[in-house]
Amino acid sequence: MTSSAAKPRVLVIGDVMTDVIVRPEGPIVLGSDRRAKIELHPGGSASNQAAWFAHFGLPVALSARVGQDDVAHQEAQLRAAGVTPLLSGDATRVTGMLINIIAPNGERSFLTDRGANENLSASDLPLSLLAGLDLVHVSGYALFAPGPRAAVMSFMAVARSRGITVTVDPGSVGFLEEVGPDNFLGWTRDAAVLFPNADEAACLSGRSDPTAQIHFLVQRYGLVVVKRGAEGAEAATPAVRLRAAAPAVEAIDTTGAGDAFLAAFLTARLENAAIDVCLKRGVEAGADATTRFGGRPGKG
Question: DSSP assignment, residue 95?
């Protein structure tokens, strides 16, 4: 995917969030208390993906929008993760926040305030950012509101016209259903790789059978990689379909598992690894991410 002798360079576009991770000791008691472990972590799908790209050794920058008073703090957190921050401060909205309630089996439920992410605009994505890039990766969260969507789609189009690979992670089945799967398929139709999870693949394809999902999606994207959690993952082109099982681990928090998978897969892909190798590295990284709290590497 790149002919450069230097390490491939990546730009991630999307969201910065503060994650409030809540792990109740048992079922929530409506109208009363339940003891829980509660932690604050830096988050946002795009931010986590950028941190994992850096963890796997690639030069990576993140373009996003945060609350104006929070710029220095968020920049410091990204730099600590090895990411070059390209953050704009928003004077009217605070940094996005997400409450992540984790069930005993590690599955998650979210309450989301998108905050400043909703105001991402063309001014946050100058075309000068494309210089020297090998990959532009877009978090689907950046496509769910009209303003950010227009800016990101325009940037994606110019990137493709310059021969830069563009990849997309749908991000959220709830938001996909809200905007309509056909619309999302249209907005991302020229992406080189799509990374849905199992629920997103079902939503986008309108099919419950995994084989039918793959058949539908590979007609629209050159490569489709479906993350299926504990069942592993699969990757398909119009000619090839491959599967990889997930390693057995004791999951405590699935936050960021898909982001780790994606970054590991694409890092291998940018190194010209075969698809089966990319899948193997992806499922290993995703499984490892579930053994710690938070969505970024280095938090055990």
Answer: P
Residues 6+ apart with CB under 8 A from 174: none
Cα-atom radius of gyration of the chain, to the nearest Å? 18
Q: How far, in Å, CA of 76 to CA of 92, rounded? A: 22
Q: How many helices (H) and strands (E) does the chain have?
A: 9, 13
Rounded alpha-carbon distances, angstroms, from residue 46 to 22, 138, 215 = 21, 7, 27
CA-wise closest residue to 49 among 227, 273, 238, 266: 266
CA atoms of 6 and 253, how far apart (whole Å): 35
Q: What is the pLDDT of residues 199-234, one digit of tens each?
A: 999 999 999 999 999 999 999 999 999 999 888 999
Q: Is the dihedral of CA 47, 19, 257, 175 positive or negative?
A: negative
Residue bearing tokens 């959690």: 229
- How long a stretch of residues is the chain? 300
Cβ-Cβ contacts under 8 Å for 282 (sequence gap 6 or more): 225, 227, 233, 244, 261, 262, 264, 265, 268
Residue 101 CA to residue 108 CA, distance in Å, equals 6
Q: Nearest to residue 7, comparing CAs of 54, 75, 47? A: 54
Among 194, 108, 97, CA closest to 143: 194
pTM over 0.85: yes
pLDDT of residue 253: 73
